[in-house]
Every structure is written in C-alpha cells, then in structure tokens.
From TrEMBL:
Gene3D superfamilies, per the entry: ACT-like. Chain A, domain 2, Met repressor-like
Organism (species): Halobaculum magnesiiphilum
Keywords annotated in UniProt: DNA-binding, Plasmid, Transcription, Transcription regulation
Single GO MF descriptor: DNA binding
Any GO BP: regulation of DNA-templated transcription
Start and end residues of each Transcription factor NikR nickel binding C-terminal domain: 55-125
Recorded family membership: Belongs to the transcriptional regulatory CopG/NikR family.
Name of the protein described by the UniProt record: Ribbon-helix-helix protein, CopG family
Length: 129
C-alpha cells in the first residue's frame, strides 16, 4: 500500500541518514521497521497489568505547557514518586519515577502525549509483578 506523510524536512533528513548508515535497503523498509517497533512498544504498554515500577521520560517546550504539565503531575501524584528535571534553553527534559497500577501509569503517559508542546513521552518499565 502506498501512503503519504507530512514530515518536517529536518526529521526526514535525520531518518534517511540513520537508515542509510545502518545499511538498510530502502526508506520503505526502515519505515516498516520503525512502525513495527512502535506497535510493539504500544502493545507492551497496553498489556501490562497489576503493580509496576516505571519511568516516564518526556521533553517539552517550557513556556507553552509548563502550567498544564504541573496540573497533570499533581493529578497523578498517587503514582509519581519523584521527578527529575533539566533545562536546555526553552526545552526541558523531565523524568517521572512511578510506582502503582499499570493502568494508572499508562493513563499518565497518554495524558502527557496529548500535549502538542511535548515532543516525546517514553515509558520504561523497570519491574512488573
């Protein structure tokens, strides 16, 4: 199936450099592999149940979203044990160390991804019971 995507030129250039450096045969192959990894990561996030320990790392443009992010973090203080924060100009990197029900941590990750000013929100599960 053919499809078209709107991708910023800078991201496309970096993507092309990456798959070519890895010796992949084509951009299409690299996109299929990236999509498969995304699906697998999402399925893992969706399938976890019970109590877990996790870290959510996300980056965001500070001035556009800081108030709303603080509201979300307060709403989820039942699972956020501690945070770590670093500034890089207008962009920030934040780490949330979490413990609690997988469904609640999953909800937090999805809420963070809802913001246009959040670049990425990645979840790593350190322990699942």
């Amino acid at each position: 199936m053919r499809t078209s995507l709107n991708i910023p030129q800078e991201l496309l250039d970096e993507f092309d450099e990456t798959w070519e450096a890895e010796g992949m045969e084509s951009r299409s192959r690299a996109v299929r592999e990236a999509m498969q990894e995304y699906v697998e990561r999402h399925q893992t996030l969706e399938e976890l149940e019970g109590e877990v320990v996790a870290m959510i790392v996300f980056d965001y443009e500070h001035t556009l979203v800081i108030g709303e992010l603080h509201d979300v973090q307060h709403e989820f203080q039942d699972v956020i044990e501690t945070t770590s924060h670093s500034h890089q100009g207008e962009w920030c990197l934040e780490g949330l160390f979490c413990r609690g029900p997988a469904a609640r941590i999953r909800e937090l990750a999805y809420r963070l991804r809802d913001f246009d000013a959040v670049g990425r929100a990645n979840v790593t599960f350190l322990q699942a019971n």
